[in-house]
Amino acid sequence: MKRKTLKHVCCSAAVVFTLLGGASVSRVYAESLESRSNKEIAIPLFDQVPEATALFPDTLLSWDAKNDPDAPFNSSKVPLATRVQGKKMNVDQSTEAKVLSIAIVNRHTKGTPSQGGTDKAVYNFTNWQYVDTLVAWAGSSGEGIIVPPSGDITDVAHRNGVPIVGTVFFPPEAYGGKSEWVEQFVQKDRTGKFPMADKLLEMSEAYGFDGWFINQETNVDAQTATAMKECMSYLQARKPKNQQVIWYDSMIPTGAVDWQGALNEQNQGYFQEGKKRVSDKMFVDFRWQNLETSRVKAVQLKRDPYDLFAGIDVQANGINSRRKPSSILGENGQPLLSLGLYCPDWTLRDGGQYDVDRYWENETLLWINSQGDPRSVESAKSEWQGVSRYYVEKTPITSVPFLTNFNVGNGDGFYLDGTKVKEGSFNNRSIQDVMPTYRWVIDNEAGNQLEATIDYKDAFNGGSSINLSGTMTADKRTFIQLYASQLKVSASETAAVVTKGADNVSLVLELKGKEKPVTIQGEQQMLANGWVQTTYSLKAASGKAITAIGLDIKNNQTGPASIRLGQLRIGKEKKVSISPVSKLTFSGKTVIDDLTESIRIRWETKGKNTNSYRIYRKVAGTWQFEGETANNSYTLLNQERIEDTANYRVVPVDHYGREQQSKGTTAVYPFEALKKPEIAINASSTLVSVGETITLDATVSKSTETVNWEVVGATPETASGQEMTLSFAKAGTYSVRATAVNASGETEIIKEKYLYVYDQNTGIKIENLSVLPTTTADQGSGYTNEGESYRFALDGNLKTKWCDNGSDKPWMIADLGTVKTIAGFELFHAGAGGESSEWNTREYDISVSDDGSNWRTVVQKRGNTLDHSKDAIGLVEARYVKLVLEKAEKNGKTARIYDWQIIGVDQTGIVKP
């Protein structure tokens, strides 16, 4: 899809590819605590935690879920919920038109953890009530073009009753697209089958998502274009009924990419051919002008016009985009076609700059309106009206029990039953609850001024609650409508709500056929940390359909109020049979450092009556909460080594939120044997004058207890600690000895003749050799354009850069003109130029040469995260300097070097034999 996505492929690439792999995966089941012997358990070692998948056509053909060690973590176990429409909240809402969201749901593709992580700022979308299908948009020519959704976003989409599809993205040639990729994709085998299409179906079934969005923007020939249509028809004929194929209005039958901005004779064959459905939906490109013609064409083809989605691009400008939801209305005030939003993740990205508070504000503006009330019709057509203005809300609440903790899937800490059980920020969309259908429908009686927000400061279960804050007047009610529903309950059923800060909370139910809602009083029970549970009999709703659920709230005193909603349950708690968990498996590990490992675990269960699984670790005799998932595979991130082994327990949780301890299982995990520490040292400078201060610092293993330094001739000569500050009274060359010590022993490193100290009257001038007139850069792996050539890395200007997005390991050579003395280097990476620090170079080597042919490596940097990195070296003489980016960025291969300073002296003879 054109627009800003194309920019992403260049130096601002944000959608990237995941390489499958890691290690051999012979799975070894951990034994229970009771039966485990002392024999060694071999656990496969992986370079990284499980990551979301992204492939090219050839790697798709070789993909197999059984042989992909990350596949179990990318699979969703949450079935697609049934949902129904709520009542119209304003007169403009359509009950027929639909909404398609094409969202970049993950910050990156390559490197995206399969099940969340420690970053709170994620696209944890919650306004599912307005979305009918979600496209997990991703892909780029450098990292992968066939991208299924990560399992966590499938979990939450399905919990809300929303189908989710993956992306097949063939980019334009100008941004790396290759016609051979399209040709490979539509190639038939000897039996007439389309192997790629079969693989797409295999992957969607294995991962549990609902189909594919095909975005073909590479120019091809007519034969390939015809084969693409045949391939889509093949998909249609073989896909399960619950899956869908969505086509983007881009290519026409000649094979040319020619966006029509309409359904017409040029592209109708990719939508409908005679009586044969080719695609289930079509996303009409942003160039549309007269949508009425597309509507008429759909009717002529005997298709629902609402299978067409008029595209509005909100990626760059969000609610300030030229087109508004009202732009697709007909003369009758109803949408002519359905609505297709491209990149509504603007709320977090361009519009929010990953600020979570701004994200929630933007979500309200984009999806609801500036009034924050779906009933409002105040916004003019010249303004962004909000999606709620024209599209009726839907709800998955169609059966009991229904339970929500108002957990949005991220937070600053994790709570269980009102008590914080885990510190630290997290994201885990797999366990996001169904959030209120209405954001927000609140009626305050005179004197009350409560407003609702998502709140991370306190929670009952998960990481968040709903906070109603503002002034309240004694005995005046505030009504909040929470959910649309379609429920039938018996006289014995109950409901319960858990709150904090409210004196009286009544349950308000709208019943089908009743003009006035029923208000039910309940019985209160005090819980931990100020939380209160109020339980209600649903006898008054017996035999009738509950169509909406809300609360009446009162306080006894006048004054400021902060009232939290922590949990809502509909349905009496009953004893249920839940499947046991067995055969807890440690299927892999990633060593973060010598005291920290991330552990892959799996377990067996039939999943009957199970909502989720909680994982605990035994620490000092107490079971400590570590995580929760809806999957039967999970990654325990950053587990600290306390002893040589750790005990873990997995406990199933039923649909009432109750842990079933008797159905859990336990196993013992062996940490890597502790080794002697690793150590590397660096100096603030290796070329200084007499009396000038130098700082030495050591990079050591986390287990290191101390570092001992010795520099003979320095002041002081010895020191302990990770840093040593010293100076010299005499000129000369000095060696450095450093020893790291831990419980397993010690490791010594010696750098001979590492520091050079000179008298101030020698005339030595230390400078940036890169900007000397004799220095040039004419050799390298490549660059994106003339304005981002290698030479811009050597101009001393942080407003220019060298950028190369076409090489696996970008490199460049600086020619100093003549042999000079080099003492070190400074590199200014993406963050130093104002770009994301995640794009900083992670691994690089620097080598020097006298003749440009024979090289000796002087720097090997690994694990860099700094915007501005410094590397001092023992003095060397050389004319040529080569920089090789072994890992150009955290999740990709694009070089972004804003400046490369080669620090030294414009002379030789300083280095003595």
TrEMBL record:
Q: Where does the record locate the signal sequence feature?
A: 1-30
Annotated protein name in UniProt: Uncharacterized protein
Keyword check for Signal:
yes
Give the species this sequence originates from: Enterococcus ureilyticus
**Domain of life the protein comes from:** Bacteria
Q: Which residue range or ranges hold the PKD domain?
A: 677-747
Cellular component (GO) terms are:
cytosol
Keywords recorded for this protein, A-Z: Signal
Q: What PANTHER family does this protein's entry cite?
A: CYTOSOLIC ENDO-BETA-N-ACETYLGLUCOSAMINIDASE (PTHR13246:SF1), ENDO BETA N-ACETYLGLUCOSAMINIDASE (PTHR13246)
A Pfam family of this chain:
PKD
F5/8 type C domain span: 757-905
Q: Does the keyword Aminoacyl-tRNA synthetase apply?
A: no
Gene3D superfamilies to which the protein is assigned, alphabetical: Galactose-binding domain-like (2.60.120.260), Glycosidases (3.20.20.80), Immunoglobulins (2.60.40.10)
Molecular function per GO: mannosyl-glycoprotein endo-beta-N-acetylglucosaminidase activity
Question: Which PROSITE patterns did the record assign?
Answer: FA58C_3, PKD
